[in-house]
């Protein structure tokens, strides 16, 4: 079986990426952190030796439209927020892969467009042919 043309491989990869993007659930950017605090109450266990600080308190930090923000997250919402953060990372990964495939596919399409009679020759030959055509165009 002959190998699939590269552009077919890339088209299928992009179609798969689009399908995966459609399955993403709720998402949000950011990272979750835990904090432990000390209060102002005298004799509280948070000032004991060793101290047992209050917490954990959860906070999600993110940058959106050039601004850094952070929000407290209730303990019962931590699992949900973690899932949203994972979905966001998945989005970024899928988009990165789409861009990578898109760049390669664009390069292939432009090379094909520059050489209409080509039936998938090796890249270096294509490149020289494209350069030659460009010189002809410039001369006329
Ligand atoms: Zn305390």
Q: Overview of this structure, please?
A:
It is a single chain. With 140 residues, the protein is α+β, with helices and mostly antiparallel strands. The protein has one domain (6-134). The chain is 51% helix and 18% strand. It has 3 helices and 3 strands. It has helices spanning 6-22, 78-114, 123-139, and strands at residues 31-37, 54-64, 67-73. The protein has a 3-stranded antiparallel β-sheet with strand order 1-2-3, with helices on one face. A hairpin with a 2-residue loop joins strand 2 and strand 3 (67-73). The longest helix is centred in the C-terminal third of the chain and has 37 residues, at 78-114. The chain is rod-shaped and about 85 Å long. Bound molecules: zinc ion. Zinc ion binds next to loops.
Summarize the helix and strand pattern as letters. Answer: HEEEHH
Detail the poorly predicted runs. Answer: none
Proportion of residues in extended strands: 15-25%
- How far apart, in Å, are the first and last alpha carbons? 44 Å
Q: What is the spatial order of strands in the main beta sheet?
A: 1-2-3
**Small molecules bound in the structure, each named once:** zinc ion
Coarse shape: rod-shaped
Radius of gyration over alpha carbons? 27 Å
Helix content: 40-55%
Report the structural category.
alpha+beta
| Biggest β-sheet description | 3 strands, antiparallel
Number of helices: 3
Number of domains: 1
Overall mean confidence score, pLDDT: 87
Total beta strand runs:
3
